[in-house]
Each structure stands twice: as structure tokens, then as C-alpha cells.
Write a structure and sequence with these properties.
By secondary structure, the protein is mostly beta strands. It has one helix at 312-315, and strands at 5-13, 24-34, 37-41, 47-53, 56-63, 66-74, 85-88, 95-103, 106-116, 119-126, 132-140, 146-153, 160-166, 176-177, 186-192, 198-203, 208-214, 226-229, 236-244, 250-257, 261-269, 272-273, 277-283, 292-295, 301-306, 333-337, 344-349, 356-358.
């Protein structure tokens, strides 16, 4: 049974860009309870939250450090093979989410729901077969087209990643394979950018992180898969996050394993991919650490992660697309559960200034 905890938004406030002192943190209880969750911001600064309370998938907006407009998206939601992911069109006119079901250990269907002026709408994208679906994620591009990636596998086998696009007001395209080999692809994640393009990253517990990009209106299946190779001494790379800043620079947070878990950071800019940089480690006694990454108008990237045993490990410590100065927040934010926020870690990527802050 999924643990149920109060969801918190932890804001990290910089004392001063030039200050050498550690930044302060402010904890904001959101007034809702649940387990896994995700958060996103649109260009107007509205914060959109999706979370699972029991088996109900819920949505709300965050305003004045509390959740408003609480709505139930669907019931019977399982988080055994997926985490809820949210994608918001950058102008805020459309909210999208995906999940698998219809219940735990029976992930025969992959669902998509979207919110518009008429409320919530739900559809089955893939199903009615013996296949199982894992780790679905979606992103909406500048034209309102929805892109979806998920792992699909026959029972008791490893999966391959498949992709489909739904044109605005239209139907889903035929599914297309993004990977050739069947592997345990993990933590598939997508994001959109200021130009309306969509990005996808995934890991396979080996020495490469995979990445694809499609411009607004293009198909992700038509683009090539790029690899980000592990830093020297890293045995495998898996869970993590990506974020695209306003200049189009892509930031990656990576779970890097070499006998112990570490947190790495890499970026892609102008077609050049950096060598992953070690941010923290070794983290002993933990495997499911999912670092998150974001970028603020102060010109800094931020990486947040957890090292605790609470639900933050399963939540993934989502920094999401909550930006500095958005939603009335003056700092990057970490979405977590109340039993894990004290384990939150924070690292600022700013040249040689790479301070760690513990919120204990």
C-alpha cells in the first residue's frame, strides 16, 4: 500500500549570488496528502501539481503556498510501474498527464488525460493486448501536439521504448519504436522548451544516457538517438531528469552508479555534450535516488535530490520546471513528502562555486 504523506514545497532562497554563505530554505506545506507527485510551471508563472492520493490521481494549482482548484483526474491509478508526470503547454492553455493501469501489477493499458476549458478528458492510448506498459511520460509542443513515450513489454520480459504523437484536435499516430534492444529502460522523462520543441531522456542501467529532440511539429521518432557517455569510473547511469533553459541549453541530472550511488550533472549546448560532472557521492545504502535539475534567470543550474528513506526517493525529488521568480517563489523548489524533506540535498552549478546545503 502506498504511503500517504503531506506534500511540501521547499523553496531554496539565495542569500546573494556573490555570497559564500549557505542559502536559506523555507518549507511550504501544500495542504494536500499523497504519495508520488510532479509539478510544472507555465510561462505566466502558474504552478501545476499532479499527485496520487491512494489510488486517485489529482490535480491542482499552487497559489500562496497552497493547492487550489483540487480536481480528481482519474481513479484506480497504480504507481507500481509509473510515476505521475505532468506537462503544461507553455502558455498554460493545456495540461496533460499519463499513467498505466487499470490497477497494480496489471498495467495492460496506457492512459492519457488532458485538461482544457471544458474540464478533464481521458482516453486509452494503448491497450487491449497482452503487453504491459511502464514509465509513461508526455510533453506538449508549441502547436499543442502531445508526444508520448513509454516502455512496452510482453509479460515477464524486458521492454522496448515506443513513441506516438497526437496532433492537436486529431488522433494518435501509429506507435514507433525508439529502441531496438529489449532492456530495462528506466525513468523516461520528457520536457518542452521555449521554442515549442520536445526533449526526451532515458537510461538503461548501462554506461550511456539516451536523448532525443524534436522541433515543434516534428516527430520524435524521426530524430536520432544521442548518447551521453558516463564519466570515467561510472558503471551505469539510470534515473534522473532534464531541463531546457530559455537559451536552449539542455541540463541533465543523473543517477550514476559505481558500487555506490552518485549524482552527476551534464549539459548539451550548441551540439556539444559535456562530460558528466560529479556533484555528490558516494551515497551509501541508497539505490533509487532520482536527482532533479532546473535553471533560473540568475544564470545558474540547480540540482536537487534526496538521500533519505522516505517517499522523496520514490517521488524523485521533483524540481520540475519551477523556475526562479515563478509562482511567487524566489528560488528553485523541491516537491517532497513530509517524512523526507529533511533529507533533501541541493547543489548549485556555478563555475567553481558548488556548495552543498543540507536542510536539517
Amino acid at each position: 500500500m502506498q504511503m500517504r504523506h503531506a506534500l511540501l514545497l521547499t523553496a531554496v532562497f539565495l542569500m546573494s549570488v556573490a555570497s559564500s554563505s549557505s542559502p536559506a530554505q523555507t518549507i511550504h506545506p501544500l495542504g494536500v496528502f499523497g504519495g508520488m507527485a510532479d509539478i510544472a510551471a507555465d510561462e505566466a508563472g502558474n504552478l501545476h501539481l499532479i499527485w496520487v492520493d491512494g489510488t486517485a490521481l489529482k490535480y491542482g494549482r499552487v497559489g500562496n503556498n497552497a493547492v487550489t482548484q483540487q480536481e480528481t483526474v482519474a481513479g484506480g491509478v497504480t504507481t507500481v510501474f509509473c510515476r505521475p508526470r505532468i506537462s503544461v503547454k507553455r502558455d498554460g492553455t493545456g495540461v496533460h498527464t499519463t499513467w498505466v493501469g487499470p490497477q497494480a501489477l496489471n498495467s495492460d493499458n496506457l492512459y492519457h488525460a488532458w485538461r482544457d476549458a471544458g474540464g478533464w478528458h481521458t482516453e486509452t492510448v494503448w491497450g487491449m493486448s497482452n503487453d504491459k506498459y511502464f514509465f509513461p511520460t508526455c510533453a506538449v509542443d508549441g502547436g499543442g501536439n502531445v508526444h508520448l513515450v513509454a516502455s512496452k513489454a510482453a509479460p515477464n520480459t524486458a521492454g522496448r521504448l515506443f513513441y506516438a504523437r497526437k496532433q492537436a484536435g486529431g488522433a494518435w499516430s501509429a506507435e514507433a519504436a525508439l529502441t531496438d534492444a529489449a532492456k530495462d529502460y528506466v525513468d523516461v522523462f520528457m520536457a518542452n522548451d521555449a521554442a515549442g520543441g520536445v526533449h526526451a531522456r532515458w537510461g538503461a542501467y548501462d554506461k550511456s544516457l539516451r536523448y532525443r529532440y524534436a522541433a515543434s511539429g516534428a516527430l520524435l521518432s524521426d530524430s536520432a538517438t544521442e548518447s551521453i557517455d558516463a564519466a570515467q569510473g561510472t558503471g551505469s547511469m539510470g534515473m534522473g531528469d532534464l531541463f531546457v533553459d530559455g537559451a536552449g541549453k539542455v541540463h541533465f541530472a543523473i543517477n550514476a552508479y559505481n558500487g555506490s550511488v552518485n549524482v552527476d550533472y551534464a549539459f548539451k549546448s550548441g551540439g556539444i555534450v559535456s562530460v558528466p560532472q560529479r556533484i555528490s557521492g558516494p551515497i551509501t545504502g541508497q539505490f533509487e535516488v532520482t536527482p532533479s535539475v532546473g535553471f533560473g534567470p540568475d544564470g545558474k543550474a540547480y540540482v536537487l535530490w534526496s538521500e533519505g528513506a522516505g517517499d522523496l526517493v520514490k517521488l524523485g525529488g521533483r524540481l520540475g520546471r519551477v523556475l526562479l521568480g515563478r509562482g511567487g517563489l524566489a528560488g528553485p523548489c523541491l516537491l517532497s513528502a513530509d517524512d523526507a524533506h529533511e533529507a533533501a540535498q541541493r547543489r548549485q552549478i556555478d563555475g567553481d562555486d558548488r556548495r552543498r546545503h543540507h536542510s536539517r
